[in-house]
Amino acid sequence: MPLRARIWGCRGSLPTPGPTTVRYGGNTSCVEIETTDGSHLVLDAGTGIKPLGASLSAGAPIHLLLTHLHLDHVEGLRFFRPLWDPRTELHIWGPPSPVHSLRDRIARAVSPPLFPLELADSPAHMTFHDVPHEPWDLGGIRISAQPVSHPGPTLGYRVELDGRTLAYIPDHEPVLGVELDSLEPEWISGHALAESADVLLHDGQFTEDEYPTRVGWGHSSVSHAVTFALRAGVGRLVLFHHDPDRTDDGVEELRGRAKALWGEADGQPPEAASEGMTIEV
Amino acid sequence: MTSKAQKHLVLIVARELASQLVTPTFIADADGELVFYNEPAEEILGRSFAEVGAIRAEEWTGLFQIEDLDGAPLPLDRMPAGIALRERRPAHGRLRIVGLDGQKRLLSVTGIPLFASATEFVGMLALFWQEDEPARD
User: Fold this and answer.
1) Inter-chain contact B7–A187, Cβ cutoff 8 Å?
2) Which top CATH class is A4-280?
3) Does B118 touch chain A (CB under 8 A)?
4) Does B6 touch chain A (CB under 8 A)?
5) ipTM of this model?
């Protein structure tokens, strides 16, 4: 069975509907991974999870893997239909925090004054899990999670099925103050997650011109994304987390720049994620 | 995954911080292996990190000849860095070190244990400040 992923949202930071984002989409991060047992595996709960939720049949367990708890990665949860269905078995996985439980941190976004209802009002059967240090299996998929460089506790994920691998690092500034080319692989944030992956969905929020005024914001320039992917030896880079100010034409320019930077390197030329895109490995 | 074990993000960020500091800084992982020191530390230790490479904690003392203020050899478990590493608590102290350039220097050292979570110890960061030798009567 191939490893299949479907992108339900790939916009960064802020939902961006409108005529200039029709081709790549305006919903924030959400990716569905097809499992082998009928359960549902979802990466992040940006606004893309709302249409995903409407497409799911009731009853099968849902595993939601959160990279982090910035609003653009959890804001769709409140409108995720299964959250309000008593038949739902929902497992939410996320980064550990030394202070507050995962449940308490998510509850902040699902409570007044940000939302009229409390998380406790949900009739769904929810279980919260800090991700384990070691790889684990969900729905026949092998999952690995590791912290990556981004403000606040943040994870990247690696999902594997029958030797096929997809890495998902949507919010990532792989280096700060040093050159990515100068580092040994083990010193590059996220390298082990992406190493030799068939597909890498990676932050490509900024142009190279924009990045110098946004250092430390936790995101990559297109150059970072390409260099990181080349250092990790991935087969196919898919730029993700498009800036909310990036129009469709702007995303295509960024993709063109990524292709130029990729040059004649091994693997497929970089692409840009778009809402509705299906990836089969 | 990677052939060499991925460094924990806390160590990666610590190294990025150290590489920007003018304060000599020394980083070891949870096993006590010296994994990085910055350019200002090279001035004190007498050789670049690239030349020394990653070495085990037990090798530090012999390599750098570390002494207490009375001139006696200072074992690892009495050094601020060793305390941070082995007892996993912060420590501060003064010592003398003979670097690989043969120069003896008086240092103040602060060792800070690095925890990624309450139970996940990932290494130690030590900051060095070189002091002037006290004037002798």
Assistant:
1) yes
2) alpha beta
3) yes
4) yes
5) 0.76
